[in-house]
Amino acid sequence: MILQHLNNLTTKRIILASSSPRRKEILQKIGLRFTVMPSEFEETLDPKSYSHPSQFVIATARGKAEEVAQRLSQPGSSPCPHIVIGADTCISLEGQVFGKPKDVDDATRMLGKDKAGGYGIQGLGGTLVEGIRGDYYNVMGFPLHRFCQQLALVLVEERLVS
């Protein structure tokens, strides 16, 4: 799906609007060349104002990407990127969204309720996981499969238009 497009992506300026080491690692594993530029987007969206946790995550990811794209489009900034990747994750259980733990005590509190968000599946937290339905990388912090599908579609459309 994305393999046939990787050579075309070498000519694109790609920005990862995140400081997440997990997201950087995942994208590097597929051979994507990009620059990391953490977003300064204020993560103040209220998850309760969205009908589903996925809508909240998409809105947050979009906000991160748009903030970086806007910053890069200012006069005097480096050349505008072709692609800005924004991402976010959340944990939800029975309709309640759990964000990142504020500190060790908060993570302990989350785990004490056996709720995710305070651990990483690729480490010790993996001992708590019995199974996954879907994309392992999504659980790590980046929906790699969906990203590759969407990027391939954009690249095909771009080729048809240009």
UniProtKB/TrEMBL annotation:
InterPro entries reported in the protein's UniProt record: ITPase-like_fam, Maf-like
Cofactor(s) annotated in UniProt: a divalent metal cation
Keywords for this protein: Hydrolase
GO molecular function ontology, one term from the record: nucleoside triphosphate diphosphatase activity
PANTHER family: BIFUNCTIONAL DTTP/UTP PYROPHOSPHATASE/METHYLTRANSFERASE PROTEIN-RELATED, BIFUNCTIONAL DTTP_UTP PYROPHOSPHATASE_METHYLTRANSFERASE PROTEIN-RELATED
Name of the featured protein: Septum formation protein Maf
